[in-house]
Design a protein that fits this description.
Layout: E1 2-7, H1 10-21, E2 37-40, E3 44-49, H2 54-59, E4 65-69, H3 70-76, E5 81-85, E6 91-98, H4 103-108, E7 111-116, H5 119-128, E8 132-137, H6 143-147, E9 153-158, H7 162-166, E10 169-178, E11 180-184, H8 186-191, H9 193-208
Parallel strand pairs: 1-3, 1-4, 7-8, 7-9
Antiparallel strand pairs: 2-3, 4-11, 5-11, 6-9, 6-10
Bound molecules: 1-O-pyrophosphono-5-O-phosphono-alpha-D-ribofuranose.
Length: about 210
């Protein structure tokens, strides 16, 4: 039995398409239902989880495999194997602030308030450039932190750039690029070696078109 942690929402739907093309799933999981566990035949189970929780389910071994953004894996310092880059969910981790804010002046401040869904990444970044920061943990619409002036900048992912633009913000610094990864629990990998290698190979074949 292989248990897969699938993120809810758009990323999950794109990941499902890859799993279907790879022959791992036969059809889509009805994401709009309130059901969270789906048995697929006799040897597969799908858990529908919040994207940020996928690494936790995989690290704990509740799921053998999962699909998680590199941004979330870095934030949680997740102790899992990365099997493949699924080349979906592309985004950039950035520091952003109100348009016109000067990067050097911003980073030269003695103390910065930073709004973010990624407190660990934000804290590390500002500590690396020796800027004292107060991290304000937010759960969504992070841009509002900088727009309202609650924080001088934000650390957040940018995909199309539309949300920053619509709210008069600009990227000040790019930290890293992120895509969704196929991840695996360390013990599961050795216990289900053949099955997991088969899934990994099928996914890589689909995403690279090789
Ligand atoms: C993410 C991110 C930005 C937005 C960026 O939020 O936190 O707010 O997407 O996308 P864009 O560059 O294409 O505009 P998400 O959509 O996950 O919603 P949230 O505000 O609830 O976190």
């Amino acid at each position: 039995m292989i248990t897969i942690a699938l993120p809810k929402g758009r990323l999950g739907e794109e990941a499902e398409d890859i799993l279907i093309k790879s022959g791992i799933l036969k059809k889509k999981i009805p994401q709009d239902s309130r059901k969270l566990i789906f048995e697929i035949g006799t040897d597969m189970k799908i858990l529908l989880v919040r994207a940020q929780d996928v690494p936790t389910y995989v690290e704990m071994g509740t799921a053998d495999i999962g699909i998680a953004g590199k941004d979330v894996l870095i934030e949680h310092s997740s102790d899992v194997f990365e099997l493949a880059d699924m080349k979906i969910g592309y985004c950039k981790m950035t520091v952003a602030a109100k348009k016109g804010v000067n990067r050097e002046e911003l980073f030269a401040k003695d103390f910065l308030k930073v709004g973010t869904k990624y407190p660990s990444i934000a804290k590390k970044f500002f500590s690396n450039i020796s800027t004292q920061s107060e991290i304000i943990k937010l759960y969504g619409s992070v841009e509002l932190g900088a727009v309202t002036g609650m924080s001088e900048c934000i650390v957040d992912i940018v995909s199309t750039g539309g949300t920053l633009k619509e709210n008069g913000l600009d990227v000040v610094e790019e930290l890293f690029e992120s895509t969704a990864r196929l991840i695996c629990n360390r013990s599961s990998y050795y216990r289900e070696l053949d099955k997991i290698e088969e899934i990994k190979a099928a996914v890589i074949k689909t995403v690279t078109g090789a």
